[in-house]
Amino acid sequence: MSISLHTRLWVTLFLILGISGNLLAAPKPYVNTPEQVAKIFYTALSREDCQMAIQLRFNYSQADCRRLWDLMRGDGSEFKNFTITSQTENTAFMTATYSSIRHDASRETKMTGFDFDIELTQKDGSWMITKDSLEQRLNSSISHDSQPSPQQQPESVQAQLVEGKYPYGFPPPLSHNLLGKSIRSVILGENQKLVALTFDLCERENEVAGYDRAVVEQLIKNGVKATFYAGGKWMQSHSQETKELMTNLLFELGNHTWSHGNLAVLHGEEMQRQILKTQRVYEEFRDELVASGYHQIPEMRTVRFPYGRCNSESLDFLRQQQLLAIQWDVVTADPSPKQTAKGIINIVKKQVKPGSIIIAHANGRGHGTAGALEELIPWLKRQGYEFVTVSELLQEAQEVKAVDTCYELVPGDNVKYDRLFKQK
């Protein structure tokens, strides 16, 4: 019998017969696909076989396993419908279905069932689970079973229940010395090469902008994480596209003001409206998606100033709202009709460094952007870069480069945009 056949039979026996006990305490079985790893890991969890589970998930402990087992404990817990949603050479995203039968304090039978998300990474030839949304979904279902319906609860309690549904440490812990500053890039630890791709989705007051689906498809095809800075008006006129981005684990969204207002020119209520109205649109979409079963969606906690323009008043207002201002240190210049894919590629190759935040556009105004990604994504990977969202970049930062003003590349280089937007 060949080794490959032997190992396939071993995995099949494990899944069908539920082998446990001392046999599962043996070294990690040879499995070479994300589906195999996920099926064995979650089957082990359902049987409280923590010795097996910790071998198939990064930074996973016996305590983590037992805590999850306590949440799952019920009759007939089952995992099924493992489906790959996106896969690259070293990263895979999956969904799976969890179902269980519970008995509450009054001995009434409660059926629990939901889909959850899984992320896996391949390192040194082995696939392992990096994170999932199972624990958050379980906490949410238990909390709903033990609480009155939302209509019967005070507004503050409803908000607290919703807040508990967002996994993976999003939003990142806000460092108070960064509030009221304009963040341009970060400094990382030794040997860390992280980069954040960001794409603006802006739409001015008297127009309807587009959506560059080719950019998004390039990111999804290559399993590349990115952050989209969406205007509130753009989200409203592109509601389906917004929800697609919000529910994709690769992406996060930030606030790009309501109608691309210049917040160095606008003041008072009009300046505040540009921020707050956009936040409200996002929250409405998020609440709708959560009600539909998507519980992995983070809050919107970062803002990008249109035109790269701000002043002390707008920075202070973001500080009051506990929102971080995110700018950039690499400018693709893709809004220019003269820009090309080759031009973008040359800019990024010359200017990118670990901790960079790259700005581009995906609202149909990015010239050469999708074409540039075809070459830049594999090139950056060959240079050892890992793609992360802005929130993840901030979480990994040893130091954050933040300033008291806003600009494109050097202070004062974007004052010319002030004449495009006047206070009403």
Word description of this protein:
This protein is of the alpha/beta class and 424 residues long. It has two domains: 3-163, Nuclear Transport Factor 2, Chain: A (Roll); 182-420, Glycoside hydrolase/deacetylase (TIM Barrel, Alpha-Beta Barrel), CATH 3.20.20. It is 36% helix and 21% strand. The strands form three sheets. Strands 6, 7, 8, 11, 12 and 13 form a six-stranded parallel sheet that branches. The protein has a four-stranded antiparallel sheet with strand order 1-2-3-4. Strand 11, helix 12 and strand 12 (357-361) form a beta-alpha-beta unit. It is globular and about 65 Å long. The N and C termini lie far apart (80 Å). Residues 1-30, 103-109 and 143-173 have low confidence and may be disordered.
User: What is the average of the pLDDT values?
Assistant: 81
| Broad shape | globular
Order of helices and strands: HHHHEEEEHHEEHEHHEHEHEEHEHEHE
Beta content comes to: 15-25%
In CATH, the topology of the largest domain is named TIM Barrel
User: Which CATH C-level class of the largest domain is it?
Assistant: Alpha Beta
Please report the total strand number as a whole number: 14
The tally of domains stands at 2
Tally of helical runs: 14
CATH superfamily of the largest domain: Glycoside hydrolase/deacetylase
* Rg, Cα atoms, Å: 23 Å
- Please summarize the sheet with the most strands: 6 strands, parallel
CATH architecture of the largest domain: Alpha-Beta Barrel
Would you identify the regions where 5 or more consecutive residues have pLDDT less than 50?
1-30, 103-109, 143-173
What helical percentage do the residues reach? 25-40%
